[in-house]
Amino acid sequence: MKRLLTDFRYMVCLQGLILFGVLWGVWYVNYYYHLWWLEGYSYFTTLPDFAVIQALFPDDALKYVGAFLLQLFYEPIWGAAIQAGFAVWIFLCGAMVVGCLFKSAVKMLWLAALPLPFFVVGQFWDLSLERSIGWCLVALGMAVAVWIVARLKKIDWRPLKVLCHPIVRMVVPILSLCLSVYFLIGFDKGYQNQEMFGRLEYYGEHKRWNEILKVVTPQAAQRNQLLRTYALLALAETGRLPDYMLRYGITNSTEFLFFNREVPFCRNFNSLFYRSVGLPNEVIHQCYQMGLQSFFGFSFTELRRLVDTYLEIGDYPLAQKYMEVLSYSTFQDEWIKERMPRLEAIKGTSPNYRMVGKAFTVDTFLETMSSVYDRSPDNRVYADLLLCGILADKNGNQFYQVFQIIAKHLFAKGERIPRYYEEALLLVSSHEKEVLTQYTISKESRERFQDFMQMAKSNRLSAAKRKYPDSYWTYVF
Asked: What's the pLDDT tens digit per position in 430-453?
């Protein structure tokens, strides 16, 4: 064992494996969804015109190599391995330099660990991998240069004894590894936010709405609009929007969507939202806008959603076109193969672009949902989004007018009226007395409303709000 500990190659392999294992675990456990998101935000193709353009410029060449590697991030287990592999590569190059410069290289191997924290500290935000690849190339260049010099002229540096002390040899690598882990986990809170956003995209892409509501608490949603917007869509998809909306900190109807926010996360959410409300044209529009913000003007997330959208509406030529574009990437064959039966099923058919009702724009959320509901008056999700959007704008009179129309389709057979609809109707009943006879409002809501109004009329409005903190009455007053 003692002989092994003095063997330079053995120690290099041992420390390299420990470094890889620790960093791989940090990346995989803490940033699983961020790694997955990185693949979707990138794009790689072997088409000659695209490849030649990247090769003409050094900076683009590194980006092109990074895009190739990012394809593997679709499976985060490989993404974590690549991220850890960059650090191991730099360590191995440093070990090569140490081996060439020192006769007792094993005693100075700790020098190879010194660059690691400086590399890792900027690794997370290297979204295109250009920086990581650049570090690896520089490290390799330095190692090769030292090796050539050592071959031409014998080098036998003898360091000070204090630098070869066992404590130095043990403490420096451990400290370097601990700093690297700290820089990945505790250095920047933005890392956790980015991971959360990637998780939300993953759940939204796979329609795991209940999972979104598990990770986005009302308290978290109140502090962050992106979390709040995802939570509102998840509530709508699970039928809980008119019972829990106000707990998540909404302030107006514009918070159901992102307007004039040229950020990939926001554009991607808009695309998911319009997919949920059955507007394929706007899904396509948002996909193109999202692609413009990626490094190459295209992204895998954009292209895959375009394919799925065109398959859904039965547009064979365009679905085939984008599947062919994806086929020139290295690792998309399995994804394409899964969709080939759907493509063949729509061959020779006409696209199913819905033409029910008048054409409309998506200028505002309420205009959009009003037009969407007009086309599908029996769809509860569309009705909830429209009614809750009106409630979010504190427009009780408009809510009552729209509710009267929607109730004929969704509450005509005595179905339970959701909580916020009841609370809004009770407010309206103060000047529209027939409300209480037209609709069945629960006894509990009536009693709570009477209590709230009595407290408000007796100059105890603040106390009433504290007693009913997430009620529509508190929201309005």
From this structure: 888 888 888 889 999 999 999 999
pLDDT at res. 298 = 83
The 3-class secondary structure across the chain, one letter per residue, is CHHHHCCHHHHHHHHHHHHHHHHHHHHHHHCHHHHHHHHHHCCCCCCHHHHHHHHHCHHHHHHHHHHHHHHHHHCHHHHHHHHHHHHHHHHHHHHHHHHHHECCHHHHHHHHHCCHHHHHCCCCCCCCCHHHHHHHHHHHHHHHHHHHHHHHCCCCECCCHHHHCHHHHHHHHHHHHHHHHHHHHCCCCHHHHHHHHHHHHHHHHCCCHHHHHHHCCHHHHHHCHHHHHHHHHHHHHCCCHHHHHHHHCCCCHHHHCCCCCCCHHHHHHHHHHHHHCCCHHHHHHHHHHHHHCCCCCCCHHHHHHHHHHHHHHCCHHHHHHHHHHHHCCCCCHHHHHHHHHHHHHCCCCCCCCCCCCCCCCCCCHHHHHHHHHHHCCCCHHHHHHHHHHHHHCCCHHHHHHHHHHHHHHHCCCCCCCCHHHHHHHHHHCCCCCCHHHHCCCCHHHHHHHHHHHHHHHCCCHHHHHHHCCCCHHHHHC
pLDDT 10s digits, 360-379: 556 789 988 998 898 888 99
The model's pLDDT over 147-156, given as tens digits with 9 standing for 90+, comes to 998 888 776 6
Give the span between the Cα atoms of 119 and 28, in whole angstroms.
18
Alpha carbon distance 365, 385 (integer Å):
9
